[in-house]
Design brief:
This protein is an alpha+beta fold. The protein has one domain. It has three helices and four strands. A four-stranded antiparallel β-sheet has the order 1-2-3-4, with no helix packed on it. The longest helix has 44 residues. The radius of gyration is 31 Å and the shape is elongated.
Length: 160
């Protein structure tokens, strides 16, 4: 009894089932990788800039708003009665109102008679706005990095 292969088809499968990437796929992988590197560099630069803002804020110091005399266009003259972090409560003649520092003074919702105090809150507000902008850009870069990593993952999955 010999081995008969007369009517049998022999199927030969390649052991290498992984697809080779096309030129376009290679370009897309490279483009996504380059963008991730660029975004990570941007995040590092923004983190350094945030650190510089912290130093600038430290140099500015803390000034309490308690018992500060203020004026409001609608409510008239008042005095700060409490300060809880960035929130202050101002007692006017008939009402107590809550405001957020430093914007309420820097944007002149509350007016102060002392120009040095006004300038302090303007600088504090500028730092606050820069910080918010940088933190938003860092978060945006984080999400963008994730999107590019997902794109790379999908491209690599197609190659399997």
């Amino acid at each position: 009894m010999g081995l008969s292969m007369d009517n049998e088809e022999v199927e030969v499968k390649s052991t290498d089932t992984k697809k080779k990437p096309t030129k376009k796929t290679k370009e897309m992988l490279e483009e996504n990788s380059n963008k991730i590197v660029e975004l990570k560099k941007e995040q590092e630069d923004l983190t350094v800039a945030l650190s510089d803002l912290d130093k600038e804020e430290e140099a500015l110091g803390e000034k309490s708003a308690l018992k500060m005399k203020v004026s409001h266009k609608k409510f008239g003259d008042g005095q700060v009665i409490t300060q809880d972090g960035k929130y202050i409560e101002v007692k006017f003649k008939d009402v107590v109102k809550k405001f957020v520092l430093p914007g309420c003074i820097a944007d002149k919702f509350l007016e102060v008679s002392d120009d040095t105090i006004y300038e302090y809150y303007v600088k504090r507000n500028e730092i606050h706005k820069k910080r918010m902008n940088m933190e938003l850009r860092i978060k945006s870069a984080t999400f963008a990095i994730q999107r590019h990593e997902d794109a790379i993952e999908k491209l690599n999955a197609k190659l399997k």
